[in-house]
Records
---
Amino acid sequence: MWTGWRLATIIAGFIVFVAVLFALYVRSADEDYRRESHDAIARAKQEAGLTKIEAATKHVWEQSVWVVEGRDGTNTEWFVWLRDDGTVKEKASDGLTQSEAEQRFESGHPGKKIVRTLPGWFSGQPAWEIRYIDDAKEARQAIVFLSFKDGSELKSYNLIA
């Protein structure tokens, strides 16, 4: 006979089982990205001499590139672009910060809401990718690439809603 206590125990056990399966599924779905991030950080430490990592961002456009932001032993801040065909290392002070890139964008595109800003690689050079709402009425977004070095606009793309 199924008593209330036995039934509650079986239901609770089933709920715990489903929760554990869900947690394992989410962990395995993210495993490749976490491994790539870990590998990129290790490569930036080895090839670019970074000792403290502040961020690692994967950027995919013309090719997949990992951008690692960090500091070296002298506390100098660097951006490192890890590409299949090599590594590019730039002092952060030699380029635009994320907020400077966003300010440059906003001055040329007043009233446009920024969705996200990523460091990346475009047209053979370090760049900032800014995705923004181009037409709020139609919910159309666009992407503009700005040069990391001087903030000049490299190219923009309108995305079809």
---
Amino acid sequence: MKRFLHRATLAVALSAIATTVHSSPARVQAQSQPLLLSQNVNFQPPDVTAPGSRQGGTHRGTKLCPAGLSITPLVPPTNIGLTLTESPTIFVYVPQTSAEVEFTLLTEKEDAVVYEKTFKVDKSGIIGVSIPATGDNNKSLEVGKRYVWSFSMVCDPEDRSADSVVKGFVQRIEAQATLKSDLANPDPMTRLNVYAKNGIWYETLATLAQMRRQTPEDARLTAKWTQLLQSQGLESVAAQPLVGPL
């Protein structure tokens, strides 16, 4: 009789342990779901560099551009970003100013203008300048070539040497078959992560910016944007608002 009771007690204990083991994964999975949704944008910088710095030089203060006023381009510390398209979007932070801002895209040797545009801002913030596809007044970005872009804040229209200027590079590359396949996914979050994983800076930024414009109240996207800029040393403008594309 004692042996029977001992066996019965042991069976009940084993059953309880089995129930606990089988139910644990479900609880862990439920807890890990929010972590998946809040994952950072893991941008992997490509092994490319460019001359110069994304920081502009100092300029003497003028009525339109008080001393200390400067624009900040959104580009990695290497001062170059990759793109897959002939018409990428270049992002820049522009402070509140009544000065005109001139965007210019040149060939790598800076001996030919590919595209240029002049604009003004109503308020400070981050602006995206999209380079049009091939047209009557501009050329397309060719695969395998680098281009130099610049933003010039025209502080004195009568003396362009007073401009506050920042420069950076864009290089167009061709997507391989695997990358094309991955980017065929219609989900923007998936494409965002594919761009970031493959070091495609301009599309990473443009995709996330577009998602934020579509759902501006999404705190998760705001956090991703802030983290992405901070990861590239752009803390000073990470919290600045997106004020619209051009």
